[in-house]
Design brief:
It is a single chain. With 399 residues, the protein is α+β, with helices and mostly antiparallel strands. Helices cover 41% and strands 13% of the residues. The radius of gyration is 21 Å and the shape is globular. The protein starts with a helix and ends with a helix.
């Protein structure tokens, strides 16, 4: 997230200062990010196959295992989310280095490096054998790996399988014109590695406005993931996207190990497990930061595919929308958490009648850590402005 955040801060600052770019800030933070990226590549890809472990990664109890501790029988988890974050990281650093190369051409080499990193990661994720994509379910899952030839796919339908949507970048054709060395190296790499180019994106096919797409997902796989994400019986709530599919309410996931039944079921409110102190829950609630990134990704995909690329929203409604319209509809659902409904109540305040009705409280918005997956009630710490405050950007029209 550091690279994405740095790029967003840079662009916002540039816009607020009449187009004047703070290149010193971008260059300074870029060097630190490269060191961090290299650490991840060297330390969290134990088999050198471009599929990353990473462990905890902030999603607390989303897995059947505690991912911050040693796993059973010496195994390790090849993580869909960890690998996707690294693909996103590579694209963010590529974009930053391209910006720096506009003014300091030496950074063009770095752009190529991160482009290649992204393609190798994307190829590993898309692989049919030991990859993380499940052809039967048409979804991304983690793999529990005990040895080089022994995999167990952990079929939990969770945010872990949606995070691959985050790894997307759309570049204007103008960027290739402005960086001929970068374009030349890219073309050489793609010509000499056609299997990578064919697997992951439509780089050579210009989209709307002569744009180029870099993504972990071609249109077909993206639609398959959205088929679950936009389904009210799975991820889609009236108030955003759940962190775990509601499918697991009636179909808990079970993993049997040494006489133990480890279980993941849909828990839309407070956690019912003691993992991480039991005060955080990714097994059903709505979390603002990942919802925000899903919306941003849909806008990027739309910038490439245009209005003719449509998906059903909600699934089963017969209503087809462009990806931009889907992103806007999801923004409205998240805003509903805080806005008064038809009865004058704010969903985030839940059934607390005093908070709902007292003028001393009902006009003061609390930015809860996460929200109940069915009712929208605020859960956890009530002062998580740092990420739940992102709703302000969703309420603001995109320019």
């Amino acid at each position: 997230m550091h690279a994405w955040s740095a790029w967003e801060v840079y662009k916002t600052d540039q816009k607020n200062n009449g187009g004047k770019a703070d290149l010193d800030f971008l260059e300074s933070i870029f060097h630190k990010l490269v060191i961090n990226f290299t650490w991840w590549v060297n330390r969290k890809d134990s088999e050198g196959n471009n599929i990353f472990e990473g462990g905890f990664l902030g999603l607390d109890n989303i897995s059947v295992f505690d991912r911050s501790n040693a796993l059973p029988a010496g195994g390790h988890i090849e993580q869909s989310d960890g690998t996707s974050w690294m693909a996103m990281y590579a694209l963010n650093l590529m974009r930053i280095s391209l910006e720096l190369a506009k003014h300091r051409k030496i950074y063009a080499d770095m752009s190529t490096k991160f482009f290649e990193h992204f393609l190798y990661i994307a190829s590993a994720m898309a692989g049919m054998g030991d990859g993380l994509w499940d052809e039967e379910d048409q979804f991304f899952y983690d793999n529990l790996k005990f040895s080089h030839d022994n995999n167990i796919r952990l079929k939990v339908r969770s945010m872990v399988g949606l995070i691959p949507l985050f790894a997307v970048e759309v570049l204007d054709d103008e960027i290739l014109t402005d960086h001929p060395e970068f374009a030349e190296r890219l073309n050489w790499f793609l010509v000499n590695n056609p299997q990578l180019a064919n697997l992951v994106s439509r780089w050579s096919d210009k989209g709307m406005g002569d744009k180029h797409l870099l993504s972990l997902l071609r249109g077909h796989r993206m639609k398959k993931i959205l088929l679950r994400m936009l389904d009210g019986s799975e991820f889609l709530s009236d108030y955003g996207i759940r962190a775990l599919s509601k499918f697991h309410e009636q179909n808990p996931y079970h993993f049997y190990l040494d006489g133990q039944d480890l279980q993941v079921d849909y828990t839309p409110g407070e956690s019912t497990t003691g993992l991480f102190g039991g005060n955080s829950n990714w097994r059903g609630p709505i979390w603002m930061p990942v919802n925000y990134l899903l919306i941003e990704s849909l806008h990027k995909f739309h910038a490439y595919y245009g209005p003719d690329f449509q998906v059903e929203h909600p699934v089963g409604s017969g209503n087809y929308l462009s990806l931009e319209d889907v992103a806007n509809e999801l923004s409205k659902r998240l805003a509903k958490l805080f806005l008064r409904d038809e009865s004058g109540k704010r969903p985030f305040l839940g059934t607390n009648q005093y908070m709902q009705n007292s003028p001393l409280f009902n006009n003061y918005i609390l930015f809860y850590e996460y929200f109940h997956g069915d009712t929208g009630r605020g859960v956890g710490a009530s002062h998580q402005t740092g990420w739940t405050g992102l709703v302000a950007k969703l309420l603001h029209p995109k320019s």
